[in-house]
Amino acid sequence: MGPPRIAARKDKSSAPAQEELERLYLQPPEGFTRARDKLVRDLRERGERSAAQEVGRLRRPSLAAWLVNQLALREPNAVEELLGAGSRLREVEDAMLGGKSDPAELRSAAADERDAIGRLVEAARDIAKGEDRDVKPPTFDRVTETLQAASVDPGLAERVRAGRLDKEARAATIGVSDRAPARARGAKAADPAANARAQRDRVRAELETARRDLERAEARRARAQDEVDKQTERLKQARTELADAKREAKRLATAIRRAEARLEKRR
């Protein structure tokens, strides 16, 4: 569960408190506790004791949660795009389970969600690089899973949207959720029960395959990016060595010409 949010106050003091909260969650994890304690002191000095108590209970975010918070605070439109795609995917799932949609629409909705997650994970990588952080692939895996969970969990979606997570979340299941609309749970659906079960199984299988494809693609992309980074660094070093070698060769050639000129004069 994410950390509590400061309750809105009727006086003007609530606005700066919310701005200060945003600045707090923009802090890197290692600076969170110190910044939180300073904010608590400032709130107390302003007489906002209730807000100070709530802020004092906030916990330092894990690295994965911090990255998700940065996405919410720095890339809110991209986060909204994901949450919108997740909402549409849930609607398509419900329609599919009720026999009022088709696999093509499900694949399209799943692809939109997958693409939105991919863009956000890429943005998280950029944020990590911009902050000069060496973030390992497992951390980005947790970022991916948190975004996947938020796309199907409205409660988590609100916490992600607020940028107030203190730890990453894990999707309860991979694939279509077990919930089904009332029309699909009745004593007898319009289609035979066997057909309904087979249809649900196909939906689950297709979405599970899409999620697995995303995970594999993200892993391949991470490995490829690591290799590109290594090769880029090697190329940079090789260019430096080449430049040094050229300078040395030029210096030696000049020295040889001068020595030959001196020798010629002595003949």
What labels describe this entry?
267 residues, mainly alpha, 76% helix, disordered N terminus
**Overall pLDDT level:** 79
Number of helical segments with 4 or more residues = 10
Q: What about the largest sheet?
A: none
Residue stretches low in confidence (pLDDT < 50, at least 5 long) are 1-16, 172-190
Radius of gyration from CA coordinates: 28 Å
Give the number of DSSP strands. Answer: 0
- Strand % is under 5%
Instruction: Write down the oligomeric state.
Output: single chain
Distance N terminus to C terminus? 91 Å
Please trace the helix and strand order, writing H or E for each element: HHHHHHHHHH
The residue fraction in helices comes out at over 70%
> Structural class of the helix and strand makeup?
mainly alpha
Description:
- This protein is mostly helical and 267 residues long.
- It has helices at residues 14-26, 29-45, 49-56, 63-74, 76-97, 103-130, 137-152, 154-162, 182-185, 193-266.
- It is built from 10 helices and no strands.
- Helix 7 (137-152) crosses helix 8 (154-162).
Question: Helix and strand layout, with pairings?
Answer:
Blueprint: H1 14-26, H2 29-45, H3 49-56, H4 63-74, H5 76-97, H6 103-130, H7 137-152, H8 154-162, H9 182-185, H10 193-266
Question: Brief overview, please?
Answer:
The protein has helices at 14-26, 29-45, 49-56, 63-74, 76-97, 103-130, 137-152, 154-162, 182-185, 193-266. By secondary structure, it is an all-alpha fold.
